[in-house]
Amino acid sequence: METIPVVIQIIALTGASLFMLYVFRLIVRGQLREEYSIVWILCTIVLVVFSIWRRGLEQISLALGVFYPPSLIFLAAIFAIIIFLVHLSVVISRLQSHIKSLTHELAYLKQELNQLKMQNEHKPDEASLLSE
């Protein structure tokens, strides 16, 4: 089985390094939370490891019975994407429930505020009562 050409190895290392810098930049700017950045950093580390360890992907794919090593990468990537999408769906569902309860609470507070305003409008002014 042929090994990965050096040019592809350099491109993979450069791309992984740039991606890692981009993730760190997003963390510093506060655009990416740390809990999500860990997933991306781990994926980047895996890419760097397989870029450096050129025969590693072939050995692992042979051990798992996969004849074409790049298909193992696609299989792992698809599996990781599905897990990440399920995780994001759970987070979105939780946030949607939280927003719904906050909206209900805001509506109740507005209703109470309007009732208090109406009570104050119909209440005779204490200052005018004292002057009479």
Could you describe the 3D structure shown?
The chain has 132 residues and is mainly alpha-helical. It has helices at 6-29, 34-52, 56-64, 69-122, 126-131. Helix 1 packs antiparallel against helix 2 (34-52) and helix 3 crosses helix 4. It is elongated. The mean pLDDT is 87.
Annotation keywords:
132 residues; mainly alpha; 5 helices
Q: What would you say about this model in short?
A:
The chain has 132 residues and is mostly helical. Helix content is 85%, strand content 0%.
- List low-confidence stretches: none
Strand content: under 5%
Main structural class: mainly alpha
Total helical segments: 5
Task: Give, in order, the helices and strands.
Answer: HHHHH
What kind of sheet is the major sheet?
none
Instruction: Give the beta-strand count.
Output: 0
User: Which percent range fits the helix content?
Assistant: over 70%
Mean pLDDT: 87
Outline:
elongated
Gyration radius from CA atoms, angstroms: 29 Å
Question: N-to-C terminal Cα separation, in Å?
Answer: 105 Å
Helix and strand arrangement:
Elements: H1 6-29, H2 34-52, H3 56-64, H4 69-122, H5 126-131
Helix pairs in contact: 1-2, 3-4
